[in-house]
Known about the structure:
The protein has about 500 residues and is of the alpha+beta class. It is built from 21 helices and 28 strands. It folds into two domains: about 30-270 and about 495-504, Glutamine Phosphoribosylpyrophosphate, subunit 1, domain 1, CATH 3.60.20.10; about 290-475, Rossmann fold, CATH 3.40.50.
Amino acid sequence: xxxxxxxxxxxxxxxxxxxxxxxxxxxxxxxxxxxxxxxxxxxxxxxxxxxxxxxxxxxxxxxxxxxxxxxxxxxxxxxxxxxxxxxxxxxxxxxxxxxxxxxxxxxxxxxxxxxxxxxxxxxxxxxxxxxxxxxxxxxxxxxxxxxxxxxxxxxxxxxxxxxxxxxxxxxxxxxxxxxxxxxxxxxxxxxxxxxxxxxxxxxxxxxxxxxxxxxxxxxxxxxxxxxxxxxxxxxxxxxxxxxxxxxxxxxxxxxxxxxxxxxxxxxxxxxxxxxxxxxxxxxxxxxxxxxxxxxxxxxxxxxxxxxxxxxxxxxxxxxxxxxxxxxxxxxxxxxxxxxxxxxxxxxxxxxxxxxxxxxxxxxxxxxxxxxxxxxxxxxxxxxxxxxxxxxxxxxxxxxxxxxxxxxxxxxxxxxxxxxxxxxxxxxxxxxxxxxxxxxxxxxxxxxxxxxxxxxxxxxxxxxxxxxxxxxxxxxxxxxxxxxxxxxxxxxxxxxxxxxxxxxx
Length: 504
Ligand code: SF4
């Protein structure tokens, strides 16, 4: 059996330009980033690379820094991956050689490990001479002790990702077969993980026992598909069957699908932010459409925090479903107040205050005639540091609005996420060191209100105990003491993480 995983040599991307290219969204906008999207399919007799390509495009919102596909034809695993959007990484030429009837794909946003080629996924390894590839959505919280233990055993790491630690645990297992090796590895890791593993003849999926990140099972004809979100099924006209349960281990091979509960579920804790913001509005979680859930968040917000206003507008696109819901419940008309530029790419310009301001204006431009001389309710999904909200307020006043009533369809963010979402450090959250009235003053709006946790739970319509609210209330469902300890080091430092922990 052979395996091929090469860094594309024909792509000219000088090191200097990589270092100086920055994402304008990152430097200018107060955005929150999801960590990754995964897509896997078993389709006997078919070539799956193109299907995975389309599936990944549907999951592009979950990670825009790199993309990769691994396929197996029953004998050989082939992998192609690179930095960039799915549509820029793949083309006819590099998809054509990816011949195989089983495959997994990954789109990545990096929070642990830099955005460099070697950190892109799927990652491949061998177990007792058998190749496997692995794709991960989530974030482990016990990486440092695992990495130390693995290095002690002689393991070497080529990347700085937590995913490679899982691959290494499988690779160095002394179990008889790969399924048992995976089970052993999974019993050692903690945190959030929705994992896809490809072997020569199997597609496997594992979801952590808390169910932090979504993972769904679908069917197209007789072919099973597993993806981060249901929107990836729609694009290839597949049928949503069910969610992969927290703690479940699914194996798909020539005998069909079998499943077992691998890990005891002490506490379900699906990330509530998937429902507020991350998951695509056309996806279903808990059999509920995300657009409809966000619409309800807006309705609850209107009940909790009414405003005397002429018009409801949203900060597009993520604030739109809640703004429409606010309008429906308050009977204040909804209108588009901003046009969003969806074509902003990467920039060579270093961040400065001027550039940050231009960045927001590049992305959002107010529709002056719609909002001039009006009392406006502006609905957004969250406030992180507050700098983007302040810019938006400034733009609206410059456009001639009379009053601004800002409404946020989530509670105040006060704690960082350790389970796969890149937000901000604790001190960066504006709500951590300011009251709502202070923030209102800072933003310069006439009124400001957030949706309460109870209002959020009412909008979701499911038991509060099934969700993680840690970034709002500090109740972390999985112990974070190890990651807190190591976070005082620069854990993105490539030299330290690439196997040199002893130097600390
Ligand atoms: S801390 Fe917040 S963002 Fe992170 S998993 Fe929990 S709810 Fe989601």
